[in-house]
Amino acid sequence: MLTDVTIERRSAEPDIHILYAAWERYQTVDVILSPTGSDGRLWTLKDPLGRSLGTVRRGTNFEIVVESTGRLNGISHHYKTLDALMTAIANHMKGSCSLGSQD
User: Fold this and answer.
1) Do 45 and 55 touch, CB atoms closer than 8 A?
2) Strand, coil or helix: what is 91?
3) Do residues 19 and 27 lie in contact, with contact meaning Cβ atoms separated by under 8 Å?
4) pLDDT per residue over 64-86, tens digit each?
5) Confidence (pLDDT) at 20
6) pTM (predicted TM-score)
7) How confident is the model at residue 29 (pLDDT cuts 50, 70, 90)?
8) CA gap 16, 21 in Å, rounded
9) Looking at residues 17-31, what average pLDDT do you find?
10) Which sequence spans correspond to the domains of the chain?
11) Running DSSP on this structure, what letter comes out for residue 11?
């Protein structure tokens, strides 16, 4: 005879938030870094579909300004060289970061 048995019923529906988080963690996104303006101090960061991911400004260092809801949240914002910045972006996005043409 069974006594004090608790049966937990689990939903047959998967939790969409858990599925999305798992999908986003393994998704790769390529980034295109394109110069904008004429003074060579500003670049745009976009995915191959043209969606904005942020901008890069050059002062004493290269600084990433990310979109508030973008995939680049959590990345360091200052880099000594453009090459170091592009490598960090590629690693963070698990894809590539390439130079595009002038806007």
Assistant:
1) yes
2) helix
3) no
4) 999 887 788 889 999 999 999 99
5) 59
6) 0.73
7) confident
8) 9
9) 71
10) 33-99
11) P
Question: Is residue 82 within 8 Å of 75, Cβ to Cβ?
Answer: no
Confidence of residue 102 (pLDDT cuts 50, 70, 90): confident
CA dist 89 to 10, 63, 78, 86, 97, Å? 40, 12, 12, 5, 6
Distance between CA atoms of residues 56 and 39, nearest Å: 13
Q: Are 56 and 65 in contact (CB under 8 A)?
A: yes
And the tokens for 5?
């048995």
45-53's contacts with Cβ under 8 Å and 24+ in sequence apart are 45/72, 45/89, 46/100
Rounded Cα gap, residues 9 and 40, in angstroms: 60
